Amino acid sequence: MGTKYTLGIDYGTLSARALLVDVNTGEEIATALYEYPHGVMDTYLPDHSTKLMPDFALQHPQDYIDALEYTITELLKKTGINNEDIIGVCSDFTECSMLPVDARGIPLCFQEKYKTNPHSYVKLWKHHAAQEEANKLNQIAEKRGEAFLKRYGGKISSEWMFPKIWQILEEDPALYHDTTKFMELADWATMQLTGVESKNSCTAGYKAIWHKREGFPSKAFFKELHPELENVIEEKFNPVVYPIGSIAGQVTKEASRLTGLKEGTIVAVGIGDAHAAVPAVGITEPGKMLMIMGTSTCHMMLGDKEAIVPGMCGVVEDGIIPGYYGYEAGQSCVGDHFQWFKDHCVPEAYEKEANERGINIFTLLSEKAEKLSPGESGLLALDWWNGNRSVLVDVDLTGLIIGMTLLTKPEEIYRALIEATAFGTKMIVETFQEYGVPVNELYAAGGIAEKNQLMMQIYSDVTNMDIKIAASPQAPALGAAIYAAVAAGKEKGGYDDIYTAAKTMGKVKDASYSPNKESVSVYESLYEEYKKLHDYFGRGENTVMKKLKKIKENVYYVNER
Amino acid sequence: MGTKYTLGIDYGTLSARALLVDVNTGEEIATALYEYPHGVMDTYLPDHSTKLMPDFALQHPQDYIDALEYTITELLKKTGINNEDIIGVCSDFTECSMLPVDARGIPLCFQEKYKTNPHSYVKLWKHHAAQEEANKLNQIAEKRGEAFLKRYGGKISSEWMFPKIWQILEEDPALYHDTTKFMELADWATMQLTGVESKNSCTAGYKAIWHKREGFPSKAFFKELHPELENVIEEKFNPVVYPIGSIAGQVTKEASRLTGLKEGTIVAVGIGDAHAAVPAVGITEPGKMLMIMGTSTCHMMLGDKEAIVPGMCGVVEDGIIPGYYGYEAGQSCVGDHFQWFKDHCVPEAYEKEANERGINIFTLLSEKAEKLSPGESGLLALDWWNGNRSVLVDVDLTGLIIGMTLLTKPEEIYRALIEATAFGTKMIVETFQEYGVPVNELYAAGGIAEKNQLMMQIYSDVTNMDIKIAASPQAPALGAAIYAAVAAGKEKGGYDDIYTAAKTMGKVKDASYSPNKESVSVYESLYEEYKKLHDYFGRGENTVMKKLKKIKENVYYVNER
After folding, report:
1. ipTM of the assembly?
2. Cβ(A331)–Cβ(A418) under 8 Å?
3. Confidence check: pLDDT of A1 > 80
4. Which of A11, B52, B103, B456 lies at a CB distance of 3.0 to 4.6 Å from B56, suitable for a disulfide?
């Protein structure tokens, strides 16, 4: 048997990429990228005249089909590889991104009558217009004492499946009725290859309140949300869930014609993009936390029992690696934090210096911040510019910085913001440990992990842990390719289980970060202070942040009159 | 009797100005300015080779003599006024600025043997190298239960007279022994005109721990500081104190030759520069607080009894207006605050916009901040970038800002810093009121009061009080001229008391600031939150600011090893 390949297709927020991987070595052979022509639609529909309400964030599903066609055709062309040697395909997608489809799985927005109806398009993960439904859902769930709430840190996000479905029912009942199924895009993208729907356990668990033994929430619960939602699972959603790594189907004749893949090629069930990164760094057992660091950070963990950890985003059996409980936590302001600082707080002299030296402003800031010792600035911050996801689950918290003097410099503030996010991570790690989910080692993936050495060293010093870095800059696509190899199975040249597949194909860089003893001890003292501020402002002793928000809202209201 | 004039001479930190004022109307006829050639010496002596220790801030007394000669000669020349029509002169000076002199009042630094000895020069008010002595002095005074401590908010500053004298004794006993008198510069400058020393009650009270009935601290106290200081008052300082507004002497033949003033012209005792501003705005009775707003803010108040107000800088009978108790409080970071923000936190785009429009960056920031409603930013700050003088008296406190989101803009932070200083003022006003010193009206003088309308409106809204603005941009010099008119007396064309003099010659602008009702109510809510943070971080419940400083100091120590 010659060299075999699998294909991971990663659908991101602005583009999709396909990655061709050597199954035996995990070597990334080639990649092809396609940017969505419609991007994110948050002001108008493609007709340029239908205006969208605030907080809408839509996408056009035609972009995904075009991406599928372009990237795979391009990969086959530029590698010259025989499509027979591609033994499996798997798609990962941003989550929860969802779409109403008809009986044949065709998006309602493709119908002439729905072209100008926003609710017929894809609601992207960051569509935030279902907040009202999310709030009501949480109230009702709490009142009913629904057990699922605590599996999601006490709150279902407005970004998830059922608030989005409910928003459609509330705002456009006719469209709701015309919908045969509401589909998660990870499943819909997979269906473009197989022709059949195979709901995956990852996004079902993390975004649609599915539990391996308890299933979806009860009819009574849905009925209390809205009488017409009573049978939403059976009528509009499809209750059958497949564990990740299993076979979703085979490439159809139509899909073969579209992409050039061989008809009959094995297709794995889809997976959420963040979760797909876990096997890509070789993690298949408990004790290892993967941080996916971008504008925000997702923390992925495996555990061998179902523990309730305060503030986690979710715990799902078979959610990340089959056979384990997958835990997810999150920090809502990481890269965004530094971007805010760059946009609003960097003085002209620094921009000038960066320009003159021909370097990026972040490079300059890092260079200056790197020269500082831990504790030297006397600054401490709470990284809540975008609220706090884990462990407090409170979007109304805001940022704090303390310790400024007349000698405080921009790079000191910049470093304090980095440290604050590291303290936030340490808080998550400690909370997991306290509640019985051990964390012994850290892994990092994503743009920041790749580029920002200062930040990664600070994270290592603050957490007093080694940090390994993903070798692949496209970890989700690689993870998908690994799952494709599992679905294909050993007989076809793949693997029979995810453990062997991930150990062989998943990769971290040779160089890792190790804590520096002196820094660790200074950061321990600083963390004590961080914790005190964290609890004082975050756990209700001083609610100034909420009061300031309330005052601000009142001002807006008065100004609007 | 034709028009009569008095002369106020204001010795500031970088220059001196003389101001000629019409006694009958208070009209400012002419002014002349002289910049000190030696400026502030904080690195080298004038020989450019004698290096100064950290925190030294010295001046050269020759600069004052040259200023006296130049400014008065210039004034007489450019106005053509007959020197017979100038009926009085008074000098105000930065405080405590002090100098060792010989038996004839000549500075030791004029002697060849002392030319290269830093301790022979003027220790300017902001000479901070006597901190160790100040700390020890405060410890001993506290241990002994010295009653004077509470008149100064519990702490004698390192800027004041006795820490500075003690530093000289510690570091150069020989020079201490060669010194006949240590003089406050307000008195020394006056002596340049009169030939005799007449210690004034203002700087004696505020800077040299003098009390009208209790006099200076006891011999036993001074002895405990250092055996040789036991008789410092009699031996090195001169215990006789004259109330402000009284006659110090007359212009001598030598001074007449130097300046062109008529020999025999009445000279009033000197006064501290900040305190001189009070009569210049017409304040001669209790209930009115004058804020002198520059890099920091001084608050001046009159009371008819001696109350102990926590955190005040001093209460001195006859200290500001004879017959009343003069109260002083202070905020250590006002203009400095905004300068820090401008230097370190204003993004390039704003600098560019200001440049393109040909306006000052502060003008641009104010313009943007002015468009915001109170409470709209959701931000709140503690204005402790330079510690807190009143009411907490704690230099180890540091700045705090809370409420940031990813949408927070620079002008919102700028406005929050302004508001923080206004809340600090309100805290001072409330503390005075709580301890029996009523404050009914605010007055403001200094560069900020003159120029920053946004800031003054915010102060009016936050304090819910009218604010009158000094009409004169040179309030201290005008105040000195008013005191000169009192010393001259009615018979010579002046006044017999400061009340009439100040009512006639002191001035505020026609336009004043009045609180806006809606803003007042929002600021009341914000102030509640400010107070809570103020007390939590300022009164020892959470000592994070001090701990961060301690960690920072340890880092410096480790790095220095």
Report:
1. 0.91
2. no
3. no
4. B52
